[in-house]
Amino acid sequence: MPCYSVRKNGQHIGFICGDLGEHCRECGAVSDNLCDYPVGDGKTCDRAICNEHSRQVGVDLHYCPTHAKLWDKFKRAGGVKQVLENVVPFPD
Ligand SMILES: [Zn+2]
Ligand SMILES: [Zn+2]
Q: Is 92 a member of any domain?
């Protein structure tokens, strides 16, 4: 049975064991989200991340820390439109 780190306010406070899905790739806690950052070919990053390590950038849209940083860079460079165009199209 897999065990997960339990964290509170950025501190590791213990472990929880059980079949709770993927671990957060950043801290080993139970993951709450998958990174939705587009990586091309209609795929997303899909990195498992806990609430603490995910950045919510939209409705049901979360990015891992690495991609949250990239997202900030894109935004500062005025590249939001370009990113969104990557997200929207799905082949029929
Ligand atoms: Zn985490
Ligand atoms: Zn990511």
A: no
> Ligand 1 mean position to 52 CA, how many Å?
5
Centroid of ligand 1 to alpha carbon of 56 (angstroms): 14
Q: What is the pLDDT of residues 67-82, one digit of tens each?
A: 999 999 888 887 666 5
39 residue type, one letter: V
- When divided into structural domains, the chain yields a total of 1
Residue-averaged pLDDT of the chain: 88
CA 84 / ligand 1 centre spacing (Å)? 26
Residue 47 covered by a domain: yes
Q: For residues 35 and 29, is the Cβ–Cβ distance under 8 A?
A: no
